[in-house]
Structures are given as structure tokens and as C-alpha cells.
Amino acid sequence: METVLITGGTGTIGRRLTQLLQEQGYAVSLLSRSPKPQPGVTTYAWNVDADELDPRAIETADHIVHLAGAGIADERWTDARKREIMDSRTRSTELLAEALRTTKHHVKSFVSSSAIGYYGGDTGDRPLSEHSAAGTDFLAKVTRAWERSVEPIEAMKIRTVRIRTGVVLTMEGGALPKLAQPVRLGAGAPIGTGQQYISWIHIDDICGLYIQALRNPVWSGVYNGVAPNPVTNADLTHLIAKVLNRPMILPNIPAFVIKLMFGELAITVLGGSFVLNRRLTEETTFQYKFPDLRKALEDLLG
Ligand SMILES: NC(=O)c1ccc[n+]([C@@H]2O[C@H](COP(=O)([O-])OP(=O)(O)OC[C@H]3O[C@@H](n4cnc5c(N)ncnc54)[C@H](OP(=O)(O)O)[C@@H]3O)[C@@H](O)[C@H]2O)c1
């Protein structure tokens, strides 16, 4: 039985990934800042700020999935929070690289999360593939640095994959509960112009991608982790209302209100990007469970 070590595995994606890996016969271990006993999972401690990591996590792993990072939309972006968002991703990767350099291990693959924020938070309706240029805003800088921090691991001849993850749809966290709750209450409305694109993916599909990435020795480099068809914020909100069988009567929420509420973080809802899954389509046989948004929403909201 192979062991997959997940950093940040206590989070939204990590919890579902743990279940799916176990169903497929993998053993799962976690690296966490505050290890708690969890049935069927071994949890090791690390402290990125103090450069500490339990070496047993690395010694026992066949694959590593690196998801750890301070939540992008959890708090307003003060300078301190921005530093934490950056360091929790880059310094944690550096700590893993150092552990891989100094520990006897048999790790075959290193799959790192990245994000479609790589291209910039507001890129209009310009289609973006893995070959498109990086953006210049804060999240683009974070994701570039995050992807670059994986290079020393690649240089150790460990197969590395970076998944530029789209907006993950799940009711366990992230954007969907925040969009669905007002709709349920009859107060749903598109945000800003409503024309910003959301490059979404169902949680089971993003987890499926991580599993393929660690399992399939042909996968390497960067892949956009998004469903085949991005939608606008307005279309998504209307479809949520249809699936929940609720009316949509309110006008759009003006952009200035969102900016007042969220400051710089507002770009994560007012901005959008139209991201294509080009490498998945052209170079892999990956089968989505939910390529269709309506079916994804029925599964999650039903
Ligand atoms: N969900 C999405 O829509 C989405 C989209 C694009 C990219 N991503 C990326 O995918 C990764 C996983 O996403 P998620 O939604 O599962 O995130 P999440 O629910 O916020 O979980 C992230 C985990 O990272 C660890 N963490 C938090 N702050 C940290 C810090 N300062 N230093 C080190 N570790 C820290 C925590 O684990 P412990 O408390 O156990 O240490 C936490 O459970 C994240 O890096 C995220 O940026 C997610």
C-alpha cells in the first residue's frame, strides 16, 4: 500500500482528498501545524515559521500533495496577512525541499497546488492556457513564487506537478456556500457587472486530478485544474437559484459596496478569468465526474 502525505490536509480539499485516496487503497498521512488524532490517518507535526518538520512524515511517504497555505479569502489583506499568504506557501515548500534533501526517503512524486490566480485576478474574457503569461497583481506574485519554490524539488529528480486550481465548488468551504446562502434566503444577486468569469471545478474532480497527478508517471509540469466551461458570475448565480428553485429578483450588488466591504480582497469576487483546461484535454485522458455545471450544482446543493 502506498502512502500519500498531504500538507494542509485538514483543509477543505485535503479532507475530501483523504477520503478519496483511502477509498482507492492508499494510506494517508498529514502534515499539520496542530496535529489531532484522526482515525485511519497518521498526522505529523510541522512548524513552518520555526523550520521544524517531523522527518517521519518524509521517510514514510511515496507521494506528497502540498496544499498548505493561509486562506486567501479568510481575512482582509493587511500587509501582515499578505506576508502570511505568501510565506505559508513558499517557506513551507522550502522546508519540504530541505527535508527531502536531508532525509532518506522514497518519494516518487510531488504534487503542489497552485492557483489560476497565476494569470491575474481580473483578465476579462481572454482565454488563458498554461502557456499564457503570469499576471502582476498580488495573487499572481504569490502563485509565481509558489510554483518557483517547487523547482529545487524538481531538480532532485522527483517528478513534480503543479495544478493551477480553479474555484473549487463544494459546500464544505470556499465560494459556493457564500453564493448559495443569500440565494436560499431569496436575496441572491450577481456581483458587480456579473460578467466576470468563474473558472470552476467540482471538488471531486480537483481531487481526481491530484490523484491522477501522483499516480500517473507521465504527468509533469503545470496543468490548469478547471472544468471545461467557465461561466459568468451572473450565470452561476442564476443557475444556483434554478437548482435551489428560488427566485432571483434583486439587482446586481454594486462593485463599490463590495470594495468597501472587502478592500483589496474584493478582486477575488469582482474580478474573473476564463481559464482553459488545455493540457488536460490535449495530453491526458482525464475523465471529469462533473464536466457540466448544472450537474455539479445538483450534486452539491441537492
Ligand atoms: N479551495 C479553492 O477554491 C482553491 C482554489 C485555488 C487554490 N487553492 C489552494 O489549494 C490549497 C488547499 O485549499 P483549501 O481550500 O483546502 O484550503 P483550506 O481549507 O484553507 O486549508 C488549507 C490548510 O493549510 C494549512 N494552513 C493554513 N494556514 C497555514 C499557515 N499559515 N502555514 C501553514 N499551513 C497553513 C491548514 O492546515 P493545518 O491547520 O492542519 O496546518 C489548512 O487546513 C490552498 O493552498 C489554496 O490556496 C484552493
TrEMBL record:
Cross-referenced InterPro entries: DUF1731, Epimerase_deHydtase, KR_dom, NAD(P)-bd_dom_sf, SDR39U1
The protein's UniProt keywords, in alphabetical order, are: Membrane, Transmembrane, Transmembrane helix
Which CDD domains does its entry note? Answer: SDR_a8
Residue ranges crossing the lipid bilayer per the database entry = 256-276
Alphabetized SMART domains for the sequence = PKS_KR
Ketoreductase domain: residues covered = 2-149
Q: Which Pfam families has this protein been placed in?
A: DUF1731, Epimerase
Query: Which Gene3D superfamilies does the annotation name?
Result: NAD(P)-binding Rossmann-like Domain (3.40.50.720)
Judging by the UniProt lineage, the source's domain of life is: Bacteria
* Record bears the keyword Transmembrane helix: yes
The record's listing under PANTHER family reads:
EPIMERASE FAMILY PROTEIN SDR39U1, SUGAR NUCLEOTIDE EPIMERASE RELATED
Which family is annotated?
Answer: Belongs to the NAD(P)-dependent epimerase/dehydratase family. SDR39U1 subfamily.
Protein name as catalogued = TIGR01777 family oxidoreductase
* Species in which this protein is naturally found: Fibrella aquatilis
> Mind giving the lineage of the organism this protein is from?
Bacteria, Pseudomonadati, Bacteroidota, Cytophagia, Cytophagales
